[in-house]
UniProtKB/TrEMBL annotation:
Swiss-Prot/TrEMBL keywords: Isomerase
InterPro entries reported in the protein's UniProt record: IolE/XylAMocC-like (IPR050312), Xyl_isomerase-like_sf (IPR036237), Xyl_isomerase-like_TIM-brl (IPR013022)
Top-level taxon: Bacteria
Domain Xylose isomerase-like TIM barrel: 34-297
Annotated protein name in UniProt: Sugar phosphate isomerase/epimerase
GO molecular function, one term: isomerase activity
Length: 300
């Protein structure tokens, strides 16, 4: 064991059980997810898509507590680059998720930008590059979101760079960070998405360490990724091909990422998210058990 990662709090998420939607017959039922995530040795979870887990705080508190689990974050989806006109509809979605996240004792809200390419059909919805005006809308909108979420719900937002969104590559991530106020907006660094889009997670942590507020741990299969990039495959179909693979068989190497995060000297969640939608219901648990064992071998 090369490092004792005492500042890293490891968890998992519905995503690692093939859950992408609030309700889908191909997904495992939520009680099974909770049972299995606890069985795999994790103590922290995320809420996943709003409506997948029970949304009544009293009921959900009981369900997670009796399995020895706690909630680290909720997740919201936003299209704030479209300007002030989308604020009200965005806030309606955010407020629902933020209230449940707060009521579960969590402190973070993971914010995912909207997709420029449809996750399932690969239809191009918008240009992949934002205009200067859209970058301004995105930056000011995220700052407003960070302010409102903290004022009303006591949560910190962490923006999640994501494949097929406008915050994806190293250049886009750095532009976004440079354009936003660190007091209001920080980053959820997803190691798999960042590698998928050509970024170096260790370098980002070492360069923008004060902006890293949260981690998602995943890896990509370089062989599948090369084919995905060469053929312009959308993210959803790429996941179905297995582009996100079980650690430690892909990139980036997670041990140096965790070591770099530990050196920041702050407490950080590191939530395992192996995108596996859709997947056979018996597949996630053995993967989760092996992944937890691997992370322990790294000191986490």
């Amino acid at each position: 064991m090369t490092h004792v990662l005492d500042r890293i709090r490891v968890g998992s998420a519905p995503d690692s059980w093939g859950v992408w939607f609030p309700d889908d017959p191909r997904q495992v039922p939520w009680p099974r997810f909770l049972d299995e995530v606890a069985e795999a040795g994790y103590s922290w979870i995320e809420l996943g898509p709003y409506g997948y887990l029970p949304t009544d705080p009293a009921r959900l508190t009981d369900e997670v507590a009796r399995r020895g689990l706690k909630v680290s974050a909720g997740t919201v989806f936003t299209g704030l680059h479209r300007g002030p006109d989308v604020w009200d509809s965005t806030w309606e979605h955010v407020a629902r998720v933020a209230a449940l996240t707060r009521d579960m004792g969590a402190r973070h809200l993971v914010v995912i930008p909207s997709f420029w390419r449809d996750d399932r059909t690969a239809e191009i919805l918008e240009p992949p590059e934002l205009t200067a005006a859209q970058w301004t809308h995105l930056a000011r909108g995220m700052e407003r979101l960070g302010h409102e979420v903290r004022e009303r719900y006591g949560l910190d937002i962490v923006v999640h760079p994501h494949a097929d969104t406008h915050i994806d590559t190293a250049a886009h991530v750095e532009r976004f960070l440079d354009a936003t106020d660190p007091a209001r907006v920080n980053l959820c660094l997803d190691t798999g998405h960042y590698a998928y889009c050509g970024g170096d997670s260790v370098r980002l942590i070492e360069t923008y360490g004060e902006r890293i507020g949260y981690l998602h741990l995943k890896q990509v299969d370089p062989g599948i990724l090369a084919d995905v990039v060469a053929n312009g495959v959308a993210f959803g179909p790429a996941v179905a091909r297995g582009v996100m693979c079980e650690p430690p068989h892909g990139v980036p190497d997670l041990e140096p990422v965790l070591a770099a995060a530990q050196k920041l000297g702050v407490d950080l969640f590191a939530i395992v998210e192996q995108d596996m939608y859709p997947c056979e219901p018996d597949r996630p648990l053995p993967v989760a058990v092996r992944t937890r064992r691997f992370l322990r071998s790294c000191g986490a």
